[in-house]
Amino acid sequence: MAETYDLTIIGTGPGGYVCAIRAAQLGMKVAVVEKREYHGGTCLNVGCIPSKALLHASEMFEEAGHDFGALGIKISKPKLDLKAMMGHRQETVEANVQGVGFLLKKNKIDTVHGTGKITGPGKVEVVLADGGAQTIETKNIVIATGSDVATLPGIEIDEKTIVSSTGALELGKVPETLVVVGAGVIGLELGSVWRRLGSNVIVVEFLDRILPGMDGETAKTFMRSLKKQGMTFKLGKKVTGAAKRGKALEISVEPAKGGDAETISADVMLVAIGRIPYTSGLGLEEAGVALDERGRVKIDNHYATNVAGIYAIGDVVEGPMLAHKAEDEGLALAELLAGKAGHVNYDVIPGVVYTMPEVAVVGKTEEELKDAGVAYNVGKFPFTANGRARAMRKMDGQIKILADAKTDRVLGVHMIGASVGEMIHEAAVLMEFGGSAEDLMRTCHAHPTMSEAVREAALAVDKRAIHM
Questions:
Q1: 20 to 30 Å CA-CA from 204: which of 43, 72, 134, 195?
Q2: What gap in Å lies between CA 182 and CA 421, rounded to an integer?
Q3: Measured distance CA(196)–CA(173) in Å, rounded
Q4: Cβ contacts of residue 241 below 8 Å, gap of 6+?
């Protein structure tokens, strides 16, 4: 007689594997289905982790070549060993995915490698990676299949000259000119990697701004920094075609609102216009699982679909496509299935752009507060006035805090600067507990630290900044 599981999860990205581990901790018998050879999904295999390995390595390369002299460190011009840098990327990936595999085994979670499809209530059919098929009997099913790259109409990605984020992580040589289509997080991060390594990077964005959805002032400040570093931006433009001409790509670019086209010659074009939920081949239509107009799985506030016993989390449902958002949903769902009070506060989900300087945000933007008619106060503090930042020659950027004008409760925090991706969590914890700008400014911060700028921005909300 076939073994029956309490929970079967399709996909072992950050949402899926975290959900599986927490469910196992809570006493459930859990199986996971994964189509890749390794666990971790896009994030660990071809997304968050390998990109951060290259971002760090390229940052060190640029710092050695341009900033060491000012610190009194005399070295000859560094030479790029791209093969070794890619080796660092791959070692980082392997260590992480093997770690996830170990955790699944440690928690006695059964893994089935293959492509899963829901064939009926409590049934997942898996076309196995090594041939054959297997049917899993289960009480509950979680769709955690993540997302895939969005493509441009009429543009074929070959992962050689026209690449997605996956191909951009594996280029065999530094392109002389790289055109990045899309000024979102992925495009700016990968563009910055290759710019540091020597590429002329041109960013083409359909909208009239970078980082859609982020605080407008923060995005403008950030773009000025990227321009100073050598990136070129073509805003309000769209790519309408790309053709190979000898060894080069001829890319047609037109104004988004109509007008004369121009042609840009490049070695590589990175298509980074966003991601779409991965739902194909899962049997959702046959199972009667409802999708929204953007192809995302519809869920209620307990992650349940309209079909009993089927749930969904992560990139495949509404909300920011972030690994940590998926993880939190996985934890919450496992706890709800165990009869506990799982919950995710969607107002306090940080987002980070891992460039140099970094951009880190949490909570509401000024535009959102204005649209909602919420009166607010603003406190800002630049890193040019921070002693530790000056000592490190990392003075680019600022901290910006938005607080309710009546209650002083912090509603949003927007940071640009070195290591702000680590600093944003001070704001996230404060906001999770409903803290005020005064709470933050009355909290002693160690000196000298970059984090002192956070306290100064909180003081600035009440026009009390000391060092500005």
A1: 43
A2: 22
A3: 13
A4: 154, 155, 251, 252
Neighbours of 380 (CB within 10 A): 17
CA angle in degrees (0–180, nearest 5) for 83-72-387:
100
Block means of pLDDT (10 residues each) for the chain, length 468 residues?
85 98 98 97 97 98 96 96 98 98 98 96 94 95 98 95 97 98 98 98 98 96 97 97 92 95 97 97 96 97 97 98 98 98 97 98 98 98 98 97 98 98 98 98 98 98 96
Tokens of 293: 């107009």
Q: H-type helices in 107-197, by residue range?
A: 165-168, 185-196
Would you give the DSSP letter of residue 384? G
Dihedral angle over CA of 42, 47, 49, 52, nearest 10: -170
Length of the chain: 468
Give CA–CA dist 370/374, Å, rounded: 6
**460 phi/psi in degrees, rounded to 5:** -70, -25
The tokens of 348 are what? 């306090």
- What Rg, from alpha-carbon coordinates, does the chain have? 24
Domains and CATH numbers, the chain: 4-149+276-337 (3.50.50.60), 162-273 (3.50.50.60), 351-461 (3.30.390.30)
Neighbours of 408 (CB within 10 A): 19
Q: Looking at the annotation, which residues are catalytic?
A: 447
pLDDT of residue 2: 59
Confidence at residue 168, expressed as pLDDT on a 0 to 100 scale:
98
- pLDDT for position 3: 73
